[in-house]
Amino acid sequence: MRALALLVVCVGLLWPAPSQAHPFAASSFEAETDASGVQFRFRIDALALLELFDAHAPEQKPASKEALAEGRDTILGYVDEKFALASGEGKGASPCAREAPTRLQFSKRLDKLQLDVRYECGAPLEVVQIRSGLFVDEESPHQIIGTFRHIRATERYFFTGGEREATIHLDRLRQGNVLPSFDTEGGVRLARPPPGAFAGPGRKAAPPKRTEGVGPASEPEPAEPEPAEADAEPEQAEAAGFFAFLKMGVVHIFGGFDHILFVLTLLLVVRDWRELGIVVTSFTVAHSLTLAAVALELIMVSPRLVEPAIAATIIFVAVENVVRTEPEARPGLTFGFGLIHGLGFGGALAELGMGGGELVAPLLGFNVGVELGQLAIVLPLFPLVLWARGEGRESIYTRVRVGAGVIVALLGLWWLVTRLMG
């Protein structure tokens, strides 16, 4: 039917084409206690910082990611406004003072701004409160992944989609020479997003709050932790293991338009369920290998190379769908390109900064989440592909395949150019 082909074209034309195909960002921090304070190393998504300047201080926006350090006052002012550390518990907690940073520079390899700074609390630490509102008011969802170390104890927290705080009782942390299990107290903890955190079209999100005070600031006074709303206490981080990372994998695949379009483009030339199984298996095995290799730090590839390479795979497959008269399923090619896409998946998981045996739960959960996300896309659509390929509908199928291929190739070309430039 011509309507089907027209629908594909319209969807493609309306599909958003951001320079970065992932509509959410990830930043991280590592924190380590000393006698009376905590040393932090932030790794903040560079593109998110540029977008922050666009929204709140365009006249001060650095010319490039490499020049982000020139916006030092603005960045430090924003961190002071939105991030706070306190010693103690509840209303009796005392804010810790931020000292002058010892490092503020862009890392090309990580594609992030690194900020090393210490918070002085003025007394031996017993209970620490971390509150992060970084990027919660901005347009794109942003995940903050925090690693907290005290002597030989390590805990991790996800601050995702809203202001959340973590209250850490240092004397209750599990000490040891190895990191604790994900299924025991003291493992990975998840700060749950508030209602509407990842709201998309058609879903109502909480109204954004205007970020005030983002602008030049000369070593502003450290921000005190914002008081909780009168009718609700702030949610505390909860222990999370396999299923938390499974959700992270699903969110990642649905947030990655490039991965979705690659899978859909492969789907259009599959003839039956057997071929579908072969193609999906090839892609799954391939990206699982490189995902694990990157997460385990067996290989390291810069996102500046991975992201353009992913865009190139999309262009290749889409153009092949257009120029070949009878394109067929290609498990070998799918496997090769799956290795490249796995580098992108692994880069998302590598943000956690974990290694060794502690990666078993997150690696397995994240990978299963990616697969579930892919299947949720493929399984409902494949019967439509089979119908379009049915007898007497050859012309319909050809128009859909070629039209979709042209649209996807143009999107891939846009991503390739913008990623090479940025």
Automatic annotation (TrEMBL):
<feature type="transmembrane region" description="Helical">
    <location>
        <begin position="305"/>
        <end position="323"/>
    </location>
</feature>
<feature type="region of interest" description="Disordered">
    <location>
        <begin position="192"/>
        <end position="233"/>
    </location>
</feature>
<keyword id="KW-0732">Signal</keyword>
<feature type="signal peptide">
    <location>
        <begin position="1"/>
        <end position="21"/>
    </location>
</feature>
<feature type="transmembrane region" description="Helical">
    <location>
        <begin position="335"/>
        <end position="354"/>
    </location>
</feature>
<feature type="compositionally biased region" description="Acidic residues">
    <location>
        <begin position="221"/>
        <end position="233"/>
    </location>
</feature>
<keyword id="KW-0812">Transmembrane</keyword>
<keyword id="KW-1133">Transmembrane helix</keyword>
<feature type="transmembrane region" description="Helical">
    <location>
        <begin position="242"/>
        <end position="269"/>
    </location>
</feature>
<keyword id="KW-0472">Membrane</keyword>
<feature type="transmembrane region" description="Helical">
    <location>
        <begin position="366"/>
        <end position="388"/>
    </location>
</feature>
<feature type="transmembrane region" description="Helical">
    <location>
        <begin position="400"/>
        <end position="417"/>
    </location>
</feature>
<dbReference type="InterPro" id="IPR032809">
    <property type="entry name" value="Put_HupE_UreJ"/>
</dbReference>
<protein>
    <recommendedName>
        <fullName>HupE/UreJ family protein</fullName>
    </recommendedName>
</protein>
<feature type="transmembrane region" description="Helical">
    <location>
        <begin position="276"/>
        <end position="299"/>
    </location>
</feature>
<dbReference type="Pfam" id="PF13795">
    <property type="entry name" value="HupE_UreJ_2"/>
</dbReference>
